[in-house]
Amino acid sequence: QVQLVESGGALVQAGGSLRLSCAASGRTFSSLAMGWFRQAPGKEREFVAAISRLGRYTSYADSVKGRLTISRDNVKNTVYLQMNSLKPEDTAVYYCAARLSSTLRVVPDEYDYWGQGTQVTVSS
After folding, report:
1. DSSP state of 84
2. How far apart are alpha carbons 4 and 77 in whole angstroms?
3. Which residues does the chain have with pLDDT short of 50?
4. Which residues on neighbouring strands pair with residue 81, listed in sequence order?
5. C-alpha dist (Å) from residue 54 to 29, 31, 33, 70, 72
6. Distance in angstroms between the alpha carbons of the first and the last residue of the chain
7. How many Å apart are CA 52 and CA 118, to the nearest integer?
8. Dist. CA 115–CA 86, nearest whole Å
9. Quick one: the chain helix, strand, coil %, rounded to 5?
10. Across the chain, where does the E strand assignment appear?
C-alpha cells in the first residue's frame, strides 16, 4: 500500500506562483511513476503532469506547458509541482497519484494510488 499526502495549496493572485508537494510512504518511491491531476467544480479530473521513476522523463498537458514543472526527490520520497504564471482557470483541487509501472500515463484510471488533494485557488 502507498500513502500519498499533498500540501502547498493556497489562494494566490493571477500571475503568482505556488509549489505543491506530495510525500509518499509505504513503498520504495523510486519504483513508482508519479502524476499530478486536477479537478475543478463540475468538471472531470484531468491530467496535469507525470514523471518517470528516476525523473528522466516528463509529460505535460498542453494547457500547462511552460508554466508548471513536475520534479521529484527520491531521497525525500517527494514529488513536486512548481506552478508559475498561474491563471484563474488553474483553480482546482490538485491530486497526486502513483503508478506501479515505469510508463507515463495521462488517464486517471491507470494510476493505482491517490492522495486526498489540495486546493489551489487563483484569483483574477
Report:
1. -
2. 10
3. none
4. 20, 70
5. 9, 9, 8, 12, 8
6. 40
7. 22
8. 22
9. 5, 50, 45
10. 3-7, 11-13, 18-25, 33-39, 46-51, 58-60, 68-73, 78-83, 92-99, 113-114, 118-123
Q: For residue 89, with 0-12 CB atoms within 10 Å meaning exposed, 13-18 middle and 19 or more buried, which class applies?
A: exposed
Least Cα distance to 49 among 40, 34, 59, 38 occurs for 59
Residue 106 has which C-alpha cell?
495521462
Please, which residues have CB within 8 angstroms of residue 98's CB and are 6 or more apart in sequence? 2, 4, 24, 27, 32, 33, 34, 35, 111, 112, 113, 114
Nearest to 98, CA basis, from 77, 81, 112, 108:
112
Q: In this structure, are residues 21 and 7 in contact, taking their beta carbons and an 8 Å threshold?
A: yes
In which region does residue 101 sit, left (phi positive, over 0), alpha (psi from -120 to 50) or beta (all else)?
beta
